[in-house]
Design brief:
This protein has 218 residues and is of the alpha/beta class. It has a single domain, classed as Vaccinia Virus protein VP39 (Rossmann fold, 3-Layer(aba) Sandwich). It contains eight helices and seven strands, in the order ααβαβααβαββαβαβ. Strands 3-2-1-4-5-7-6 form a seven-stranded mixed beta sheet, with helices on both faces. It comes from Aliikangiella coralliicola. This is tRNA (guanine(46)-N(7))-methyltransferase. GO terms for molecular function: tRNA (guanine(46)-N7)-methyltransferase activity.
Length: 218
């Protein structure tokens, strides 16, 4: 039985600066130069897409040790699942390579560069998953959360729908508000029951009897 710690924060509700930060990013351009290793990773994606046809494209951002990417690939054999994580160590954990199906491509890269490169090259995903992102719960770290990041305004051009899960409800509530500011579409955060865990975090939180929340936006 896991006994995972709950998220603790000096922030008790939606960040008071959220709207200001999100609107500033919506009304400005994100022009950070692409890093070389991200460009190389994107070339691998382009090559895979040129070699094969798929019924659907799905992206699994911040996939960690790729449990979720591998499971999504097994459950969607006609789709290409693109798992992205910035950590070479996590993606090369023992057993990951042997367990990875043919329809799963794992890229060691930063999400913000891959997202922009996909959009600029007209690669559009049917589904996008951000499962248990680092919550950065300290109030001062708002802009390290994806909805507070400069790249956030790109997301609505990346995929038809986006599924997020977290054990910190405030994170998803903030994302929902930011998404409404970006798209004028409103969605709500739901508590969900977990059957077969999709990620190691999901397994850990579920076995610790923590409430798990989900947000699906489009």
């Amino acid at each position: 039985m896991y006994h995972s710690k709950v998220v603790t924060s000096n922030q008790n509700g939606v960040h008071e600066q959220l709207q200001r930060v999100v609107l500033r990013h919506i009304n400005s351009d994100y022009r950070k130069p692409y890093q070389a290793h991200n460009l190389r990773a994107f070339e691998l994606l382009q090559l895979r897409l040129a070699q094969s046809n798929y019924d659907a494209l799905m992206m699994d951002s911040c996939c960690g040790t790729a449990m979720s990417s591998i499971t999504l690939a097994q459950n969607n054999p006609g789709a290409l699942i693109v798992g992205i994580d910035q950590s070479y160590h996590r993606l090369n954990k023992q057993g990951v390579e042997n367990d990875t199906p043919e329809n799963c491509l794992l890229l060691r890269a930063n999400c913000e560069d891959i997202w922009r490169l996909c959009i600029e090259n007209h690669i559009y995903f049917d589904k996008h998953f951000i499962l248990y992102p680092n919550p950065w719960p300290k109030m001062v770290h708002l802009q390290r959360r994806w909805h507070g990041h400069s790249v956030f305004p790109y997301l609505d051009r990346l995929a038809k729908n986006h599924t997020l899960k977290s054990n910190w409800k405030i994170y998803l509530e903030e994302f929902a508000i930011a998404w409404e500011l970006l798209t004028q579409n409103r969605f709500k955060v739901d508590a969900i029951d977990i059957g077969e865990p999709l990620t190691l975090f999901e397994k850990k939180y579920s076995q610790s009897n923590q409430t798990i929340y989900q947000l699906v936006v489009s």
